[in-house]
Design brief:
Blueprint: H1 34-39, E1 46-49, E2 55-57, H2 65-73, E3 77-80, E4 88-90, E5 95-96
Antiparallel strand pairs: 1-2, 1-3, 3-4, 4-5
């Protein structure tokens, strides 16, 4: 990916997220939010931690277990669990990456 002198990608105006550099492919640990399932609760969406593969409910869900996972582990980037989705979120930068 080409960056200009300001460190901005030619594909957009947001600075590049260096948290993507250290990621290696991981597989999801489950297909549900284990905490929500154990409590009998429902979730609005699921995301997977790109550091360890932990699957949790998204910030659109009442319990926000993915955010709690970030706060406990400092694992910065998640992706949507839906097949074919390319959406990723960096909790450090608080933006899609």
């Amino acid at each position: 990916m080409a960056l200009d002198a300001r460190g901005v990608s030619s594909n957009g105006s947001a600075p590049r997220c260096e948290h993507l550099d250290a990621l290696v492919p991981v597989a999801p640990h489950s297909s549900t939010c284990r905490e929500c399932r154990a409590a009998g609760e429902h979730w609005a969406g699921l995301v997977m931690c790109l550091t360890c593969g932990w699957v949790a409910c998204s910030d659109d869900s009442p319990r926000r277990h993915a955010l709690a996972h970030y706060e406990e582990t400092d694992h910065p980037v998640v992706r949507a669990l839906q097949p074919g989705s390319t959406w990723r979120w960096c909790y450090v930068h608080r933006r899609a990456v």
